[in-house]
Amino acid sequence: MRTPLCDVFGIEHPIFAFTPSEHVAAAVSRAGGLGVLGCVRFNDPAELDRTLTWLDDHTDGKPYGVDIVMPMKVPTEGTSVDLGSRIPEEHRRFVDETLLRLGVPPLAEGEGREGVLGWLHSVARSHLDIALAHRPVLIANALGSPPVDVIEQCHAHGVQVAALAGAAKHALSHVANGVDIIIAQGYEAGGHTGEIASMVLTPDIVDAVGPDVPVLGAGGIGSGRQVAASLALGAQGVWTGSIWLGTEEYRSLTGSSGWEAAFTRATSSDTVRTRVYTGKPARLLKTRWTEAWAEEGAPDPLPMPLQNLLVADAHNRINASGDPDVIAMPVGQIVGRMNEVRPVADVMADLVEEFGRAVSSLDRIRG
């Protein structure tokens, strides 16, 4: 399993792994892929700096990447207090009443946490500055093209830029802005995702951007067969996310048995694409929390970043409670194949081995 991107980044396998866990990212990089740390959870710049220092020291010199959340257009935003004043009381009341109805207890005293500010443009810029003081080889942006000056800043540091795209027209716009790698994020994917399935989207984007722009296939990839399928569609690698939520290394981030119970029993039908998590369409595990927002009389989700500020504390409470029927977690349709918790190294080995078997079986068919 080797493509030109392996030489670009100095990796053994073109498997890129988005994860909010530095332990998962480090393990993927050590196993020959490229671990990409999601930064949106970091409110404290000093904590991100410490975490990236840890990655520098625990990847055995192997490369890694960083994922930020930054819109192309710089929004007008004030402080988190200013934004909080724009959240309607109706929405706050709905969240409080829903948590009460679902039996979600408050956090223990001293365990509260401010809303996740990484969704704000200004905070994402600070994440970028901190990241570039370390040694990432890739900066990925979950909201498409970052501003052009950010792309130029990355290139000045010798760092490539990747951006997610849910349609060919978005990919072309990214390339025009100077983005180096396009991530074709199919409908099946967890988190922010568009409306076109990977089987259609990947070749659409590959053909649109041409042979000189590498494309990573994303969405519904959790086995070596699916990696092979993505490369057969023209991708030079794969961008994976959900499968790493089911690893032993991810436990250090959640510490919750509720999440493991939820995903190991879920089927591929047990997700929903909704705006309740961030204000933009994102695929989540279907639970009583997501169903509450779809009930008659529930308010419409707010736009980003207001929705995230509204529900951040609720999600902290929900996930701390450990109730698998209520858990709030982005995950893709591949969750139906995540039936056990395994070490990252085992997941990587299986991806590579099954890829080889899939390609060999096609060779036999070709004769």
UniProtKB/TrEMBL annotation:
The keyword Glycoprotein is annotated on this UniProt entry: no
Keyword annotations of the record: Flavoprotein, FMN, Monooxygenase, Oxidoreductase
Superkingdom, natural source: Bacteria
A Pfam family assignment: NMO
A molecular function (GO) term: nitronate monooxygenase activity
Matches recorded under InterPro entries: Aldolase_TIM (IPR013785), NMO (IPR004136)
EC number(s) per entry: 1.13.12.16
Top-level enzyme category: oxidoreductase
Name of this protein: Nitronate monooxygenase
